């Protein structure tokens, strides 16, 4: 029997306790061992509930109990999650966390401490909710040179963009629906400005490259500038717009960015809709793989935490080699990344197309009825080149990167 | 350094040797160890090539060499793969295989021998080519009660069906194109009759349930009866037809089958085309996940074998708990499985719809121009009920199960 402590009895933490109870027979069959939740660290008391007697308010009870061999961190945030997780690893306990902020900020240090103490620091639930992606990267794809990871990694923004695409809603309408349904926070900034996706692609890039990634070096643009008019063009073009977190790794360097990207129907991530996540991985031998599933939600995310508990159960006293080293990856400037560009321009094509072509070169034109504007799709060029060329043209209303 | 022996230097075996060489730095970084191919067992000699000196013709050289700690079986077939693999495990060597026939026929015994000898019998490459699916099932999804696995598991038939769907080809035309391109064997029976898919869904079902599955108990129907006319209706209906291997596991029993199934555009497997494979997994906590990638081909399949080598490298002297026990799963008869049915009927709807409704109850009708027939889509009913009802109606030309 393995004793664990759950820190933070919120949505994910209570989900973990629920799954450990409901699926205990399956877990026992798969691992040959059982899991006992000995402590739950929370500020609240939960009187009259089955967990009442497990509640503790003092982390040192967990830290000092040698019977606790694993700590589950589902508090979120950096403080006190960071000192508690660090102390747990130093006390020789495995840690599983769903906390992407913690992993993105302190992953390198925590992985090192885990290795020094021959325990595991596991974080499957930090990216892609219930989608198995962290573990496949360090097991199934460990022999691959990963050339690209591109993901729809945030369910909130994907829900909003899907509503704008399929139901013709404005950004504001779709956001308030997401808030009503509990998919978006009242302060939605971390999601809609791309910060959540940024931390997730940083973690995936570090895993794929084997080196530390500073998420602050990743160009990050959210979806707040995407409008219902953009989706009317997308509809006419047979495309959609998705918020991508993406990194491309080659001998020439590493590009990484978070931004809305226009894609066509043949893109493997085109049909990832609503709150679902999808992650595309290209390996030098494997070619393209795609992983799809529930990117958020209580039970799917808790299920990923439970998978980490099972990994620790299967490896008693054994440090599983994974993660990245402290040599920080050099992320190339966004200026050097290439895209096609969807550009909306004031005026009518009949009058202004020559100007647009003088600026951008060969373009494909789209016009909608009854609009005082038109749109062009450029050829592939770097961001730097785009900016130089765009300066030559007045009346640009919108620019969306495209991979078509 | 871990010494391995590769048995069978065909497409997959040579791919494994190629990846171990080309990605050796990545493998060393990820595992902290290196792999040396000490022997290659093959009937041929390969004079003047870099592998010339590694070639052996006598398995006992491998079996008796204590330096060889892992054997890679990429010969295919049951004989001599089965006795060689068994002897390797008994000699205390890990085994990785790409051989689905071997795993489906002797998996239970070989898993037991591996456990007794504290080594690993690994077979990621036996299902889904390069798609990580076996390992996620016994790691990431190990805490889930798996309720359904449905996969497009055979690239050859998916290529044929895609050509029939998108290019309007007949089965015969698409098959000969697949043969020209090397996607189909000259004797395509194992693929087009569904036998290959049957072994793969048997392996996945055993892993998901934890119990042995006799693949001969799985109802298996191939794609040889699917015609270009069916796809004309599918086009009119906005659907497609895919060869599914599927199992549904519940307290009421286990259903498993291989058959062509008509699905709509909103099905997660709808956009899995050409030689790609896709596998949908439903867990009781996780909900639906989907795994997509190259289901066949030299390097993707070899990459899955290399992932197994890495797993063994990371677990020296450690048996990883996975697989299934010898309690054979009871697969319910196909008669009790429920579908909707797409049925093509001789005559015109104006004259015969009442008859069709008398037989099947409420149906949706589709008519194509200039045809002496029409099609109906029934409500959901069991196979048994379908057969009873279909007896009441003359002139049924086609019946395809539908999940719409």
TrEMBL record, chains A, B:
Keyword Amino-acid biosynthesis attached: yes
Binding sites annotated in the UniProt record for NADP(+): 7-14
Occurrences of domain Homoserine dehydrogenase catalytic (ranges): 132-310
Positions with a binding annotation for L-homoserine: 185
Pathway where it operates: Amino-acid biosynthesis; L-threonine biosynthesis; L-threonine from L-aspartate: step 3/5; Amino-acid biosynthesis; L-methionine biosynthesis via de novo pathway; L-homoserine from L-aspartate: step 3/3
Active site: 200 (proton donor)
UniProt-listed GO biological process terms: methionine biosynthetic process; threonine biosynthetic process
An example Gene Ontology molecular-function term: NADP binding
Pfam family, one: Homoserine_dh
Domain Aspartate/homoserine dehydrogenase NAD-binding residues, every copy: 8-124
Alphabetical keyword list: Amino-acid biosynthesis, Methionine biosynthesis, NADP, Oxidoreductase, Sodium, Threonine biosynthesis
Transmembrane domains' residue ranges: none
EC category name: oxidoreductase
Residues engaged in binding NADPH: 100
Keyword NADP included in the entry's annotation: yes
The reaction(s) this protein catalyses: L-homoserine + NADP(+) = L-aspartate 4-semialdehyde + NADPH + H(+)
Assigned EC number: 1.1.1.3
PANTHER family given in the database record: HOMOSERINE DEHYDROGENASE
NCBIfam families: PRK06349.1
Similarity remark: Belongs to the homoserine dehydrogenase family.
Protein name (database record): Homoserine dehydrogenase
